[in-house]
Structure formats: structure tokens, C-alpha cells
Amino acid sequence: MRGVLPPSTPRIAIVIAFLALLVAPPLVSSFLLALLTQAVIYAVLAMSLDIILGYTGLASLGHAAYLGLGAYSVGILATRHGAGFWVTLVVGVLLATAVAAIFGLVALRATGVYFLMITLALGMVVWGLAHRWVSMTQGDNGISSVPRPDLGLPWSFTQGISFYYLAFAGFLLALGLLQTIVRSPFGHTLVGIRESESRMRTLGYHVWLHKYIGFVIAGGVGGFAGVLWAYYNGFVSPADLELATSVEILLMVALGGRGTLLGPALGAAVIVGLKNLVSVYTHRWLLILGGVYIGTIVYAPEGIVGALRQWTKGERAMGKKVVVSVLMTLVLVAIGEPGSAWAQKGPIKIGFLAPMTGGAAQIGKDMVNGLTMWLEENGNQIAGRKVEVIVEDTQGQPNIALTKLAKLVESDRVHVLAGGLFAHVGYALAPKVDQYGIPMLYPVMAADDLTQRKPAKWVVRNGWTSSQPSHPFGEYVAKTLGYKRVVAIGIDYAFGWEVIGGFQKTFEESGGQVIQKLWAPLNTTDFAPYLSQIRRDADAVFALMVSISALRFPKQYQDAGLKAKLPLIGGGTTFDEFVLPSLGDEAIGGISPLIYSAALDTPANKRFVKEYRAKYGKVPSYYSETCYTTGRWINEAAKMVDGNVEDREKFLVALRKVEVPDAPRGPIKLDAHGNPIQNIYIRKVEKKDGELWNTVIHTFPAVSQFGKYKPEEFLKQPVYDRNFPACKHC
Amino acid sequence: MDFWISQLFNGVSYGALLFLLAGGLSLIFGMMRIVNMTHGSYYLLGGYVALTVIWRSGSFLLAVVVGALAIALVGIAEWNAFLKRLSGQELGQVLTTMGFALIFQDLALVLWGGDPYTIPIPPALSGSYVVGQLYFPVYRIFIVVVAVIVALTLWLALERTRIGAMIRATVDDPEMARGVGINVHLISMAVFALGATLAALAGVVAGGFVGVYPGADFEILPYAFVVVIVGGMGSLKGALIGSLLVGLLDNFGKALFPELSYFTLFAPMAAILAVRPTGLFGRA
Q1: Which CATH class is domain A470-594+678-714?
Q2: Is the domain covering A9-336 a CATH 1.10.10 domain?
């Protein structure tokens, strides 16, 4: 028969694939190696889900919970208690198994769509804890700086290659275990249950117990994948546990082929590859991923392995089509894998990280616009060399940012990195940037400790620290505005803690009292539960909002009747130029400090605002300004080294020497710890010609991150935190 | 005391919004057993369409109507093209609807950009009623009123009309319904469209107070599911009580146990399910 492959083909293909996985890694680029490592870890997770989905016939919408349990065991034990690999491994797997044992009791009372829904609810329980039990999990910040594992063996696993082999060994172990299980009489019974529960029951099998044991095993192995994942990523966050992750694992299993173990492993590899490689070529990767979801169900309901089987049996032409298209994709991906040769005197490559999709996409656009504008004004040249900017989408999430960082460094071979949004992303990226030894400018990410107690050698901060504007502002509020009792409400992650902490310190030292502190999670939609708690015996409310929450808060504050009673002041991002156009009169009168205001009345800024508006049709935000200045910053440093940015050590030194006397935001130069000394503007929201502007009502010139304190004194206190400074007057 | 009253009000008004969102999802579940991950997208797209209408015409009412109807068409198209073939295949439904959710998310980003927006509300609905020390935002009262009207209309339509009887019959036993000559196909499509319409309506209404922004779809989706799970699939009464319960648990959880706020929301759900796997008012 034509088009039919010999029956031994699959087996030969599998052997070749395994040999390739064993031999190839030292030969591939480090970016591809990173993807392979992710793929084998996700393969473990997908295979574990296959036990309940493929072999038992139960679709679970909460499998990401076990990944999370394993990962958080590592994150918490390794960073806070210095636990080694074996301890975290045992705890992670046992915890996931124990939780699966409890969840199984609840979930297995249902089948079909109800099972789906119950597992969804249970998955959300674990996600909710990761997200909000901040004292245990660090909440939205996630846990960063998870060390690479130390197995007590003579060789280390800090290098990409050796860690890959560790993960691969884990994959083989999980595969062996699960293979043994599904081939045992127990496994056959599971399949029997999938085919017909009532028949198995009639035959005298304990159906529930078999399902239950399968469920618990799947959870335990899922936890194992979580342990590997945390060590690989060096970072754990609630995003790992989201509903979307659970659905993605389902897709991996379905795409590869349910009930085949190796199929889901293949599915995991395909999805990891797609997500990371497609986004290299297009920002529209979500569209393509969505298409893969639908295409899988329409064209390959039995998955790739199912299609292969049909092909070898010559049953249906469809199988062939699927296999061919998958192979085509893989070939395209392999060809497209950007070459690793890097031209000595080609263009200067700038790798730029910014959220281009998701809730902070507009901020990302402001950032890219800023940098682009400077480059276009200067003929796309830096120190006489052509410039190539490669923008990567972080989606505002630390996990994704880490993967994209690896791509920029290992695949694109950029000379210098810049960008990033959110303090917790900043904390997550810094250790990796140091590992790579490529200079990275932080124009936006303000995480205090990166230029204070945990300095990162290769991070050059040309933006600000979160608490920098808060220090003079605390004094200003107590002395000039004359408020004595203030309620603080902030977004519950590192940036919020640092902004409010800095304010509280100087405010209380100037005679004020913070009488209440309220924390709302990063994605809060409805502030009503917090607003009704605000103490009415205060003089003012200090609010720290970021991106989306800044849009909602002032309106809800007014509707709750608070604006008339308690004046609203806040951190700079509560009223920044990114949200002002979307706000109404409810924002008028809001006072906040920041390193920039678009209303700043200097020639440099007026020109900047005018040109920016002409080009992009909107008022620049501080995100635009800092990234605009970043272009100039890189140029100044590159000129100092005569354009020889390939000498990274020298280039880094130059980057730290840059001074900009006339940036739109005013003069900037770095202090001894590497954070800009710059003006802090106290701004009041006013309406001018029908638009809201941050009118500058006071300027504190040349403020350092330490304010009026001596650096050595200041650094003795811990970094500002949810509970530091303690709320003495609450 | 003030604290409890205002939190109670907050919880009820948030529950009202959830009812608009989840009422349709529950009907879809009950009738077609479809796990619809696109439901959050209807909510998001409804808000965006309304936003465009209000920019062009300035009419809030027109925005509500056009937003809701446009999304009904989207729902009908999706159901006809894909979902009706997938009855009984949970996995296929989850993955297909998830695919659509991702596509809609990206299309929204292309069409409306990444800016967060708030739907401008008529002056009559802004401001607050003041009772002593308490403030009750008019818009939140408006949401409760809309939810009550929708609930009453749905209840009357389901219990008192011929079409309602046909829908109930189809929920109870599709084969038998087909047997007695009910056009199950048409009824299913209508219910799916109704569910999408309600979700879009929720999106428009929510756009007036939490805004319309990328990511709203996946933020709200778990809440919609939880309401349906707790109330029981296919039960209007269940959706109503489930929404109130979730609204109140969410509010009091956040106010009283901030560190465990999602735990206090989802753990009682799991507990209810442990006792009644089909939810409070659901039938297996």
C-alpha cells in the first residue's frame, strides 16, 4: 500500500529522538538548550496529567496546582531555610502528593463536566494562597534568587548543560515510573475504567480506589515537575498556577495524544517551542496559539501520536497531513533559529524588554516610543554605528521576562539590554543579568535594593528607586501640606511597599503619623472592600496605584464619598501621564511626587513634549521620558569607549560614568551606589484647556536615593517592606 | 455597624454584577454541558464594543444594546461553527473555547490598543446617595437594579412562556425534548446567544466602574465559573444565590482576612462541592 510506513518506524523514530536528546545539547545554541530544558520539565508535567486524562479519562482543570506546590516548596525552603536539593525534592513531591490525596477525595465524587469544574475550584484554592498569602509566598512579587541545585555530587548544576542533563534524568525517571505503572495490571484497570466504568465494577474492581490512586500519583509527579521548574527558572510566582497554565497542560496532552505518555511529552515540546519561537517573529503569537488550540481539536482530536498511528496503518489521509504540518513547523523553527555568529563590527544591538501584550501593554508602548524617538532623532546611530533594537514582550510577568532575557542574550547576542516594567520583574531579572554579564539599563524598574543592599554588578539604573520621591514627599506632606494623620493604601508588592515605606519613614520623622495601612493585590478591580475600611479620622489618604488600578481608584474613591472629606495624595504612578487622559475630574487636586512631569516648564521638556505629541498623538509619560533618555545614555557611554561596546567591562564602566545635564526631566548623574541623583517634583493634578496635567508645585533639586540620610546609616535598616517601618500608630 | 452595612452593600452589588455574568454561563452549562472559556471574552468584547458606540454616538443606552447584541452574534457564530459538534467532549470544548479566548484577547488588543478605558456613564448614574455617614454609589445601585430586572425577566420567561417551557424541557432531557418535536438545535443556539448577550451586558455595566482593559477576560472568568459551580449548573436560582454568596465571601474575605482572601472564597466552594458535587441547586 502506498503511503504506509513499515510498522517499526515509530520505534526507530523514538530511539533516534532519545539519542538526539542525549547527544545534541552540547552542540546547540544556549537558547535552544534553555527551550529543551523547559520542554523536558513540562513533558514530566504533561505525562503526569496524562495518567488521569489519557488513561483514566478524567479531564482536570487544576493540574497547575501541583506544579505550583512543588515549585513553592523549593522557593520557600531553598531561599528562606537554605534547604538543599534532596530536602526540597522530598518535601515538594510529598506536599503535592498529600494535597492530591485530599483533593482527590473531593474531586472524584464527580465525573465529566463536574469533575472539570471541581478541579478548577481546587486549583483556584492553591492559586489564591500563592497570590495572597504574602507572608509565606511573597504574593505577586514571587520568590526570586532560587539557587541552582546542589546534589552533594562532585559536579555542579549551575551551567545550562549540566542542568539540562539533570532535568533530562528527571524526565527519564518520571517516564520510567509512569511507563511501569501504565503497563502494570493497575494501569490496564485504569484503561478499563476509562472505557467502561460499569463493566469494571461488575468485574469486581474497586473503581473509585483505582481512580483515586491514579489521581494521587499524577499529583505527586506533577509536584516533581514543579521542583525541577523552580530550580530551572530560579523564580516562582503565582502566574505558574493560573487557570491558563492548567489549560495549557491539557493542550499539551491533547496535542501529543492522550493515553500515550510519549505523546504528551512531544506535545509539551511543541507548545514550549511554539510559545517561545513564534513570539520571536511576531507579537501576534497569541493568535497563533489560539489557532493551535482550535486546530488540535478540529484536525487532530487524537493528537500527533494518534495521527502517526493512523499514518503507519494507512487509515486516513488526515493523519498524514497533521504529521507533515508538524514536521514542517519543526523544520521552519530549526531554520529560523537565529544564527549564533555575531559580526564583530555590525550594528550595535539593543535588547529591549517591555510588556507589549496584557494589562500593561500601553506602558510598554510608551517605553518603546521613547527609545524609538531618540534613535530616530539621531539617525538610528549610536557612536557612529548603526543601531538595531530588538523588542521582546514580557507580558508584564517575571517568568516570561526571564525567558525573553535568555532569548535576547543567547540567541540575538545583544550588546546591551534595557527596559522592563514592575519592581518584582526587576528583582527577578537582576541575578540572571549578572550571570550573563551583559549590561542592562533599568529606566523604569525601581526596586530599591538593586542599588542598595543587593547591588547587581551589571544592572545600570538610569531610572529611580521606588522610595526616592517618597523621602522628600513625606517631609513635604507633614510640614508644607500640614497633614498629621494619614491612611496609606497601596498595591501589595515590592514597589508598593517601598513607596509607602519611604513615605512613612520621613513623614513620621517630621511629626506625622500613619494611622492605617491597607494592601490590595496587583489586579484589584473593586476597591470597595478597602475603601469602606479607611479610617475617617485621618487628615488625608496616601494611595499608591499602578497602571490599571490607577485608572479605577480615584473614581471609586470619589463615589465612596471620600474625596470631599479626605484629600487624596499618593505615589507618582497614581496620577502619572499614562492614566491622566483616561481619568476625569475625580483626579483633580491629587498631589504626588515623581522624577518627571509632562508639565515641567523647561525648554528641554517643552520641546520633548511637543515632538512626542506630534509623533505619537499623546502626552509622554515618565515611561516615555526615561526610555528616551536611555537612548541618549547608551550613546554617551558608547562614545566614551569609541563605539567599542563589545568590550563589555569597559562599556559597563562608561555606562556608570554618564551624566545628562539637560534631560527633559532635568539633570541626572549616578551616585556611588549607581542610582541617579535627580530632581523630585511635587505635582498637583489640574485641568488646563480641557486636559489634565501634573502641574509642578515644588521642586526638590538633586535628591539621592538616600534622601537626607547618610548612605551607610540608611543601609543598616532593612529594605522597606509590608511591615517595615512598623505601623506604630495603627 | 457602618462597616458591616457598607461591606454588605458592596458584596451584594458585586454579586449583582456576577449574576449578570454567570447567569448565562449557567444556562449554557445546564443545557449543553459546554465548558465555555470564551465567556470572559464576551464580557471583555461587550465592554469594548460599547465603548466604541459611546464614543461615536454619546448614548449610554445605545452602547448597552449594541454591545450586547454584537456579542450575541459572535456567540452564535462560534457555537454554529465549532461548539455544536463537540457536545459531550469536555476536553474538546475546553481547548476550543480557550483557543477562541486567546484569539479574542489578541484581536481586542489589535482593535482597541492596550489603553485602559472607563465607559463614561450618564450623569444621572454618577454620584452617591448619602445616608448619615454612609455613601451608596448610585452606579452600584443601578447594577443591582439591572440584575434584578434581568433575573425577573429570565424567571418569567423560563417559567411562564412557551419558549421557557421548551428551554426547561431541553435542559432536563434533550432527547425527550427532541422526541416531542422541540427544535433542540434552535433552542440551544438561542440559549447560547442569550448567555453571550448577558456576559456582554455585564461587561458594559462593569466598564462603567472597573473599566475596560486587556486582561479583564481572564480576571473575571474564574469568578463566573465559581458562581456556576456553587449554584449548580442550569439553575437560575442557583446562579442568583451563588452570585450573592461569591460577592459577599469575596468582599468580607478581602476586608477581614486579607492574606487568605482568595482562600476564603474558593475553599468554601470546595467544601460545598465535597458535600454536593452538583452544586447547591444543580441536578446531576
Answers
A1: alpha beta
A2: no
Do A124 and B254 count as a contact with CB atoms less than 8 A apart?
no
**The domains spanning A346-466+601-674 and A470-594+678-714 adopt the same CATH topology:** yes
Q: How far is B265 from chain A (nearest CA, A)?
A: 8
Q: Which pTM does this prediction carry?
A: 0.88
CB contact under 8 A, B218 and A124: no
Q: Say whether pLDDT at A337 is over 60.
A: no
Q: Is a pLDDT exceeding 50 seen at residue A1?
A: no
Q: Which residue has the cell 546609616?
A: A713
Residues 640-699 of A with CB under 8 A from B: none
Say how far apart CA A690 and CA A700 lie, in whole Å. Answer: 28
| pLDDT for the residue numbered A314 | 62
Range of B166's domain?
20-215
Residue A620 has a pLDDT of 95
Question: Does residue B43 carry a pLDDT above 90?
Answer: yes
State the CATH architecture for A346-466+601-674: 3-Layer(aba) Sandwich (3.40)
Find where cell 545600570 sits: A460
Pick the more confident residue, A29 or A41.
A41
Instruction: Kindly determine whether residue A254 and residue B91, on different chains, have CB atoms separated by under 8 Å.
Output: yes
Residue A19 is which amino acid? L
Among the ranges given (A6-15, A49-58, A327-336, B153-162), the one the predictor scored with the smallest mean pLDDT: A327-336
Q: How far is B254 from chain A (nearest CA, A)?
A: 6
For chain B, the straight-line distance linking the first and the last C-alpha, in angstroms and rounded, comes to 41
Instruction: Judge whether residue A317 has pLDDT over 60.
Output: no
- A236-250, B10-24, B252-266: the lowest-pLDDT one: B252-266
A106 with B225: Cβ contact below 8 A: no
- Per-residue pLDDT band for A29 (boundaries 50, 70, 90) equals confident
For chain B, the domain total comes to 1
Q: In this complex, which of A247, A258, A361 lies closest to B94 when CB atoms are compared?
A: A247
Q: Find the farthest-apart pair of alpha carbons in chain B and give their distance in angstroms, rounded.
A: 61
* Residue B108 domain-assigned (yes or no): yes
Q: Which of A522, A34, A616 is nearest to A277 (CA)?
A: A34
- Nearest-neighbour CA in chain B from A115: distance (Å): 8
Contacts of A297 in chain B (CB under 8 A): 86, 92, 95-96, 99
- Measure in Å the smallest separation between the Cα of A561 and chain B Cα atoms: 6
Q: How confident is the model at residue A343 (pLDDT cuts 50, 70, 90)?
A: very low
Interface of B with A in 54-83 (CB under 8 A): 82
Short-list A388, A390, A395, A387, CA closest to A354? A395
- CB of A360 less than 8 A from some CB of B: yes
Where exactly are the structural domains of chain A?
9-336, 346-466+601-674, 470-594+678-714
Residue B168 in any domain: the answer is yes
Q: How far is B55 from chain A (nearest CA, A)?
A: 13
Interface membership of A149 toward B (CB under 8 Å): no
- Average pLDDT, rounded, for chain B: 88
Residue B149's contacts (CB-CB under 8 Å, 6 or more residues apart) are none
Q: What is the mean pLDDT of residues A633-662?
A: 94
Residue A60: name the closest of A267, A306, A252 by CA. Answer: A252
Residues of A in contact with B43 (CB under 8 A): none
Cα–Cα distance for residue pair A566/A574, rounded to 1 Å = 16
Interface list for B 156-215 with A (CB within 8 A) = 209-211, 213-215
Phi, psi of B212 (to 5 degrees): -120, 125
Q: Is the pLDDT of residue A342 over 80?
A: no
**Is B1 contained in some domain?**
no
Cβ(A65)–Cβ(A130) below 8 Å: no
CA A318 to CA A312: how far, in whole Å?
Answer: 12
Does the CB of A286 have a partner CB in chain B at under 8 Å? yes
Task: Look at residue B69 and tell me whether its pLDDT is greater than 60.
Answer: yes
3-state class of A505 per DSSP? helix
